[in-house]
Each structure stands twice: as structure tokens, then as C-alpha cells.
Write a structure and sequence with these properties.
alpha/beta; Rossmann fold; 6-stranded parallel β-sheet; two-stranded antiparallel ribbon; 9 helices; 32% helix; signal; hydrolase activity, acting on ester bonds; GDSL_Est/Lipase
């Protein structure tokens, strides 16, 4: 079993949540021999596919969940200004070096193949939060869709596919915590229920034979541009910490149940908070707001026309809720170095 989590999780408020204790000596995860990454999540992770819903997915939507192997394997990653929620490649594209080039990329042609089933706007489950749109695919449905269509297609029709050389990556909870921030609930109990449901779906992936898992915890969502301008951020740092503690506890429990699994929890919160605290280390000069013209077709060279004093790659925030492609690139580099340790 590999469980790379800390013995306690500290949050910005100074409160510490115990749990998440490694239950045996960590085994080495071999990133260098990994051939494919299968991703689930929301807009922080989704990539545009030629057969996906525009601005939302690599393949299909809630109205078009079914596909056959030929459809999946012929699909291509699109890379242009609108093909992710970041204005350029995101962390899974940088991590795998798959789909980072402008134009179209077949995952099959990448040294580390990227099969991305994340859906922009996804929450964990409609059991707790309504869909952002009637076509949104929740995390639970992403994994059910994968079980029914994606996994059989890859296992039966993708040359050289090997579950032992495949890493499952999940980054989810960003919409959940934003959408529920004003609920009148006991948040620690609520986040435990959310992560209970998340890991029920992870058990589905385990039942399909996948043994390597990478979980990403929540970024410092209390420090988005809108929240930095408020005296009472929503969500606040305590809520973010509670969710991250629940995720860590569930990751530890999952690893305990499945000792042959390689379970890794990357502390994205700490890395991103460091970038916000000391941005100059990363070539960033603006961490408090975003360029109003971020979505304009000429923004890369004409940023001053939109009242922006510097180019997008020198901003931390791409828009009100997403980080720039540059931040994703730095984060992916941190993840890769961590996986190689």
C-alpha cells in the first residue's frame, strides 16, 4: 500500500484535524512506467474533445452518455484558447504532456496517454447538490459512465492498455463547496457525507481492477478574487480545511481497506497557497484579481487594450474561479516531482 498523506492536516485558521495517518510503510509508485492517466473531476481537470460537449467535456454529456470503443479511441483532445477552463493546457495535460500542443492530439499518440472523463461544472452527486445544467455529468455519473463504456473500450480495444500501468486521478469538490457554502448544515458532517459518496464511486473503480490513485485536495478557494474582496469569504478557510480533512481521512480508510493499492493524496492546497503567498517565485505579479479581457481572442498580445497591466501568465487567477494555465503548469511540475520521489 502507498499512502502519501500527512499525519495531520492544518488549515489556514490554525485548527488542526487529526486522522489521515499512514497505515504501513509507503511503497514506491513508479510514475516513469505509467502509460496512461484516467481523470475524473470538474472544470479544473476537464479537457475539450472533438466528440465532447463544447466547453464542458472530452466525450458526451448527460444526454449522450453511451459510446462505443471506436468512438472513444477516435476522439481527440482539442487545444486552443477555449479548450479548458484556464485559457490553455491544464494540470493533467501538463502532467502527461498529452494535448499541450495547439490543435488536435490523439491520446493514443502520447507517451503517457490522457483519457479525461471530467466534466466542467460537476459536483460529486445530485444526492446533495443540483446539476449546474441539465447536461452536466456529476462525478458519480462520470464513473458509472466509465464503468459501462470507457473501461470496456480501453480494456478490450486499446492496444497495450494495462491497468497496472494506469493512474486514476480525481480532483473534485470545488463546485460542491462553493455551491453549498451558504447551506444551513453541520459542514463537517456534510463534507463527510460528500466524501463517503465520492469513495463509494472510487470503490467502483477499484472493482474494475485499478490499483493506483491520485487525489487532489481543494485549493485555497477562500482566496479567489471575489473572496479576497470580502470581509467574510464564502467558502471560508475553515470550510476548505474541513473538506480537505474529510478527503484525507477517506483516503486513509480506502488505503487501509485495500492494502495492495497505491493511494496518493497530493496537497494542492499547500502548493497553491505558497504560490499566493510568494508569487514572485513563480513569475506571478497579480494574485488578487484577474484580467477582465481574459476570454478575448487577442488577449495574449493585446492585454493592455483590456486594462490589464501584465500578460495572463503573470496572473494567478484566470477568472473569478479558475487559475491560469501558468499556475496549472507549475502545479503539474510539482505533482510530477512528487510522484517521482
Amino acid at each position: 500500500m502507498l499512502l502519501l498523506v500527512t499525519c495531520a492536516l492544518a488549515i489556514t485558521s490554525g485548527t488542526t484535524f487529526a486522522g489521515a495517518i499512514p497505515l504501513s510503510k509507503p511503497a514506491k509508485f513508479d510514475w516513469s512506467s505509467t502509460k496512461a492517466l484516467i481523470a475524473f473531476g470538474d472544470s479544473y481537470t476537464y479537457v475539450q474533445g472533438t466528440l465532447g460537449r463544447q466547453n464542458y467535456s472530452f466525450i458526451g454529456d448527460q444526454f449522450n452518455l453511451a459510446y462505443d470503443a471506436e468512438t472513444l479511441l477516435s476522439n481527440q483532445i482539442v487545444q486552443n484558447q477555449t479548450a479548458t477552463a484556464e485559457g490553455g493546457p491544464n494540470w493533467v495535460e501538463y502532467l502527461t504532456n498529452c494535448g499541450v500542443d495547439q490543435g488536435l492530439t490523439s491520446p493514443q499518440h502520447c507517451k503517457k496517454q490522457l483519457w479525461d472523463f471530467a466534466f466542467a461544472g460537476a459536483d460529486i452527486s445530485t444526492e446533495y447538490l443540483p446539476l449546474h445544467h441539465n447536461f452536466t455529468v456529476s462525478l458519480v455519473d462520470q464513473i458509472n459512465q466509465f464503468k459501462q463504456y470507457g473501461h470496456p473500450a480501453l480494456q478490450q480495444s486499446l492496444p497495450g492498455f494495462n491497468q497496472e500501468k494506469t493512474l486514476i486521478a480525481l480532483w473534485i469538490g470545488i463546485n460542491d463547496i462553493n455551491d453549498s457554502a451558504k447551506y444551513a448544515v453541520d459542514f463537517r458532517t456534510f463534507y463527510k457525507r460528500l466524501t463517503d459518496t465520492l469513495f463509494e464511486s472510487v470503490e467502483t473503480l477499484y472493482s474494475l481492477g485499478y490499483r493506483s490513485y491520485l487525489f487532489m485536495n481543494l485549493p485555497p478557494l477562500d482566496r479567489t478574487p471575489g473572496n479576497q474582496a470580502k470581509s467574510n469569504p464564502s467558502p471560508n478557510a475553515t470550510q476548505v480545511g474541513w473538506y480537505n480533512a474529510a478527503l484525507a481521512d477517506h483516503a486513509a480508510a480506502f488505503a487501509e481497506r485495500h492494502r495492495e493499492a497505491r493511494v496518493m493524496l497530493f496537497d494542492a492546497h499547500a502548493r497553491l497557497a505558497d504560490m499566493l503567498d510568494e508569487p514572485w517565485k513563480y513569475g506571478i505579479v497579480n494574485t488578487t484579481d484577474f484580467c477582465a479581457g481574459y476570454d478575448q481572442p487577442d488577449i495574449a498580445v493585446e492585454y493592455e487594450k483590456y486594462g490589464c497591466p501584465t500578460s495572463l501568465e503573470r496572473y494567478f487567477w484566470f477568472n473569478s474561479g479558475h487559475m491560469t494555465s501558468h499556475v496549472h503548469e507549475v502545479l503539474a511540475g510539482e505533482v510530477e516531482r512528487w510522484l517521482q520521489k
